[in-house]
Amino acid sequence: MAVLQLRNHIPIGSPARREPVTGDEPVLRVSPGFEPEWYAARCGADFSESWHLDPRVRCESRRRMKAELNRAFPECDYWDAANGAEFAGLSGCFGIGVIPSVFGMPLRFHSHRWPELEPGHLLDDRQVEGLNVDRLLDGPFVDALFRQMDVIQREWGQVRGYLNWQGVLNNAFHLRGQQLFVDLAESPELADHLLSVVAGVMIKLAAMVQARQRASGFDVDEFCVSNCTVNMISPRMYTRYVAPHDARIAQVFAHFGVHTCNWDVTPYAGELAKLPRVGYIDMGMQSNFARVKEALPHARRAVLYTVSRLSEATAAELRADIDRLRNELAPCDLVLADLPLSLPDSRFREFLALAR
Known about the structure:
Helix content is 49%, strand content 13%. It is an alpha/beta fold.
C-alpha cells in the first residue's frame, strides 16, 4: 500500500497537528504557531473552559486571532485559508487532555494557557487492572464531545479540525505518572494492560470522531502519534512496549505519522522505520538528517525549531540552520510551534525572510 504523507499544521489558536499534504508545498515550508498567551495579550483571546466547550465562543475568538495575525504579519499567508467552519472546529479543544478526559481525569482550564491535568488523580494498580475500552467510551466526556460536533454541523456545516490524540506512552504517562516507568521494569503485565487499553481507546475514539467528521463533509482519515516521552525509554523498550500499539494505529488509518518533539530521533529511526506506512516524521536539529532520510525515505520530514534558538541565534546562525535543512533534509517542514509573547515580531519576520 502506498505511503500517504502528512505535513505539519498549526491551526490558529491550536497546538501543532498534522494534515495531508497538498502536493504544492515549497521545498522548505515554514509552519508557525503561537502560544495562547500571545493571543490573550494581543487580541484578548480567552482560553477558559467555554472556549473548549462552545464552538460559538471558539469561532469568534479565532476571528479576532486571525485579524491580529494578518495585522501583525501581512507578509505571511499561512493563515489565509482559515474560515468560519475551521474557526468553530475541534482543533485545540482540550489540549493534551482528550484521552485522559475519557479516563475521567479532570482538566484545569486557564485563560492564557492550554488546559492541564488536575493533579492527584493518577490511577493505582487496581484501577488500571479494571480498565475496559468500551466502558470508558460509554462515558460523559465522549457524549459531550459528540453533542458539540452536532452543534458545529448544524451551524457551520462541516465538522473541521484535528483533536490532539497524543501517543500511547504519552497518555499512559498522563494516567499513571512516574509509576509507569516502574511498571515497565517491574510489572510488565500491568504495563501491557494499560498500554493496550489506552491504544484501544485512542483508536476507537479517533475512528468514531473522524467518521462523524467525514459524514459532515470534512475528509479526514489520519493519526499522528505523539511520542514526546519515548526518549525517556530505550529503543529496545520502545520496540517491546510501544511499537506494537503504534503499528496497530497505523493499520487503521489511511494517513499515519510520528511526532517525536524536538529531540534527537536518530537512535529510534531504525525502529520507527519498521512501522507500517509512516507518512510523517519530525525531529530536533540535533538529529542525523541523513540517517533519518535513509531510514524513512517515504515520510515527509519536519524539524521542530526551538524558541531559544530562534530568539538567541544571530542572523548568520539562523541562515546556517536554514541552509543545512535545505541541503540535508528538504523537502521538509520547519516548525515554529508555541512562539511566545516575548519573541519580537521583528525576529519572526526576519526568520520568515531568511527561509524564503
